[in-house]
From TrEMBL:
<dbReference type="InterPro" id="IPR023214">
    <property type="entry name" value="HAD_sf"/>
</dbReference>
<dbReference type="Pfam" id="PF13419">
    <property type="entry name" value="HAD_2"/>
</dbReference>
<dbReference type="GO" id="GO:0016787">
    <property type="term" value="F:hydrolase activity"/>
</dbReference>
<dbReference type="InterPro" id="IPR036412">
    <property type="entry name" value="HAD-like_sf"/>
</dbReference>
<dbReference type="InterPro" id="IPR041492">
    <property type="entry name" value="HAD_2"/>
</dbReference>
<protein>
    <recommendedName>
        <fullName>Protein CbbY</fullName>
    </recommendedName>
</protein>
<dbReference type="InterPro" id="IPR023198">
    <property type="entry name" value="PGP-like_dom2"/>
</dbReference>
<dbReference type="InterPro" id="IPR044999">
    <property type="entry name" value="CbbY-like"/>
</dbReference>
<dbReference type="InterPro" id="IPR006439">
    <property type="entry name" value="HAD-SF_hydro_IA"/>
</dbReference>
Length: 221
């Protein structure tokens, strides 16, 4: 058997601009005169972790900010936006999940975001994508180190009893690709609208839509 791993929220639905909007609304809610333009946000996407981005930005500006608190507000706003805004499953995702299941592959959702974000996303994507489609869902509480550390993928492989050599990860950002590759997992880069300019040279393929045959073909069962 082998496993197909979806590595982040935006590998299922492109939520990158909703994320940026949520950051800016959280800044306003906390009385901060910050507003991340798209260019600002793009420059931050080589790393994972919203709270760390806030902390780094505050340090660069010389501002005193409780980054975890601001990030918690951002998460609340983001989850509300997921429930209010129309979301579309990214091209080829449903077909890839369905084909993987038919072929008796295990399917995992391997993130280091909060379970609250995961729940809100999956609720918004029903009936096309649901928690029941995944054999394993990894969140930020599952491991001590977030991506780009390999811990999330190592944990997923251990939990499913799978070999990295017969697994394929789908990631939308450079840090996610680095995490998969560090765990020995073949990775397909599936950039979102804000990560298309990233350096995905470590990935086996870079695509703008998923082809189930291509994904499963890279998994050496």
């Amino acid at each position: 058997m082998s496993a197909i791993f979806f590595g982040s929220i935006s590998t299922l639905a492109d939520t990158s601009e909703l994320q940026r909007r949520a950051f800016n609304e959280a800044f306003e809610a906390h009385g901060l005169d910050w507003n991340w333009s798209r260019d600002d946000y793009l420059s931050m996407l080589d790393s994972n972790g919203g709270a760390q981005r806030i902390a780094d930005y505050a340090e660069a500006r010389g501002d005193e900010v409780d980054a975890p608190v601001v990030h918690a507000t951002k998460s609340q706003i983001f989850q509300a936006l997921l429930g209010a805004e129309p979301l579309t499953v990214r091209p080829g995702v449903v077909e890839t999940v369905q084909e993987a299941k038919r072929d008796h592959r295990k399917v995992g959702f391997v993130t280091t975001t909060s379970q609250g974000n995961i729940d809100a996303l999956l609720a918004a994507l029903k009936p096309h994508i649901s928690a029941e489609m995944f054999d394993l869902i990894v969140n930020r509480d599952s491991v001590k180190k977030p991506k780009p550390d390999a811990a999330a993928y190592t944990f997923a492989l251990e939990q499913l009893g799978e070999d990295a050599r017969t697994a394929v990860a789908i990631e939308d950002n450079v840090g996610g690709v680095a995490a998969a590759v560090a765990a020995g997992v073949t990775c397909i880069a599936f950039p979102n609208e804000n990560t298309t300019g990233g350096d995905f040279s470590a990935a086996a393929e870079t695509v703008d839509h998923l082809e189930s045959g291509q994904v499963l073909g890279l998994s050496r069962a």
